[in-house]
Amino acid sequence: MEEATSLTARPETALTFVQAISLYRRATFWAVFFCLGQLMTAYDPQVMGNLLAMPAFQRDFGHLYKGEYTISAAWQTGLMMGVPIGQVVGSLGAGYPMEWFGRKRTFGVCVIGTIGCIFIQFFSQSLQVLLVGELVGGLVLGFYAVITPAYASEVCPVALRGILTANINLSIVVGQFLANVVCAGTQKLDSHWAYRLPFALQWFWPVIILIGLPFAPESSFPTYHTVCFHCFTNTGTASRSMVVGQTREAPRGREILEKPCLLQCQREASARLHCPDEYG
Amino acid sequence: MVENEMHAGSTYRDIFNKVNLRRTEITTGVYTVQVLSGIYLIGYATYFFQRMSAISPHHLDLLRHGTDRITVPEAGLATDQAFNVSLGFLAVGILGACLSWVLLVHFGRRTIYNNGLVLLAAMQFLIGILDCVRSRPGVMWVQASLMIVWNFFYNFTIGPIGFTILCETSATRVRGKTIAFATAVQAFVGIGMTVAVPYLINPEQANLRGKLGFFFGGLAACSWVWAYFRVPETVRYFL
User: Fold this and answer.
1) Is A169 in contact with B7 (Cβ distance < 8 A)?
2) I need a labelling partner for B41 at 20 to 30 A (CA). Which of A112, A240, A244, B228 fits?
3) pTM for the whole thing?
4) A216 three-class SS
């Protein structure tokens, strides 16, 4: 009994790494799950870079120059720019829907958007269409670049926050690695599948994500439904509900009001106005 | 007043107000440094490997005189092998990224980040210096090996810790917006690099080759000065 209380009552930072992983298995799983978004973000431009050097792609999309098919430097730069340019716009656009609809729902909509964008890339027969596919695709990928870090840092407890957010970097490298493996495998193909297969394989991750996403918890972040989040994370009371739920999910109901903190008192007044049911 | 603010949620203006400005600076800075520290030189490592044994003084002459095609002799890396080399590169990166967990358990973010930057800057300068004495045949191999080591340490330190600091420093209420702004700035700087670096490397233009190490080493050193004064220790803090 004593041990149980001490485990739940002590600040979560006191947990060792192994303890934290076993205690927060769910949080760990979902933080890694959302990293798939960042993995897709890394995969697409890497594939594009590889395709530019691929004979089958050069033949079908390039023009003849001194007896060899090449893609002009301008188009090469343009295609490589598609994702980063989309990303600048997409990431800035991600800020609002993430707050209005939550990380989870925004992620779901983006994944469906990605499925659509892959169609453009997959069926493109000219550089122009491909560029549009890269730009629109990059726009959606920009959303992932924001959702993944935000979600990972919010869903996991402090003891694991460092490692689970650092994992985003790992998912980027793994994404690039997979892109190179796929292209190394398909570059020897002589047909249009040499470049279509790497595009088509992008459909794999959205399917996995759409299957798992309904079971994912929403991360704890302050929309006006959960304005009391600050008190939730800033006091020891958090550990109780976290052990129960095993993730830092958005606090529900009165749970968080049991031990009010200073910040909470400041915000309670406004919270009551917006969530009368919950805060009475 | 408060009520209105809550209801409206945050806007992009909020990340530049007095309370959040410093956080925005740190997150954006830390994230952009990932691009400035020289990852774009490493992107050309395969190119280095490809030309490694291909480039004898004779070939260098050809390059300087703007011959449009250099045939890679047997000894050089073929496209096939270049693919394998780039796979090896990424595998080293994965290894570094996994090992960074150990680092994270034992050291603070600031410690890892700042020391990592010093190491990366030093290696970039070394690549640059080696380029000045490259009359010796083995030098290019040393440069290429240094790039592999650099890649390992990038994914061991700046890569993962950059994300950790990005997530931990952004304030909860505006986290989405702060991360979004940092990502946009990073992507923007990345676009600049993607345009500039080929010109800097191209034999017909600046032809900097490994001397690009000085450029990125300089940027990494500047980043370190900034990080030394601005990046806080965030481990074990609720922010």
Assistant:
1) no
2) B228
3) 0.81
4) coil
